[in-house]
Predict the structure.
Amino acid sequence: MDTIDETIRTIAKLILVAETVIFFTGAGTSVHSGIPDFRSEGGLWEKFDPREVATIRAFRKNPEKVWGFFRTMYEGFQPVKPNASHLAVTEIQQIKGNNKVHIATQNIDGLHQKSGSTNVYELHGNPDLIHCIRCSHEEKMNYEKHIEPEKIPMCPKCDNPLKPKVILFGETLDMDVFNLAMEVAKRSNIAVGIGTSLEVFPAADILLSPSPPTKKALFNLTPTLYNEQLDYYVEGDMIETLPALVGILKEISKR
């Protein structure tokens, strides 16, 4: 069995020669930025019942309560900065060339873009937009206008409660975004998961569904139920293992 260092080196070699690489990132990627994930100890589901604040049914029934959850979430986003995991992905994109490296993320914190990454597919929505689920009106999220006031923002066209353009339970993904990411995944030489339990579908299919010769790798703190479907698994803190990947990639790219 390979050591962690040997596995990282193998992944680096695959990335180096790949024509197309896709990263698939989950909540664990942003934990070191100060954003707790949803399911772990200290996560948002310890403070909120997802059935009451994170479903489209709950939003239609009690938008005031759901907006209380949104305010907590957005207030948590304000001070955060990209961590070593985000920066490592950006650096790999710069080493390979932006057009060869793509990122499909389940996160709605915008930290990949803040770190300088491009080609980012936001599978679970864009928190910088707010929209009306009745008439489809859409506008830019304004923190002072939409988040700070205690009242719910209303649609200027039909007077329906506005909602951040993020996916709640019971809503379907933006299939245009998902299909674009899936097309890239299927033609990638290697798909690399970061900080994800692979429990949320169909998003997890970005990593799991590509067939050979696409190689599948995962960097995570703990194993998942789907590890047997992976070619490579690196267990450990991503703010350590991903910079190690970048270091090896730089080393071998100079040869």
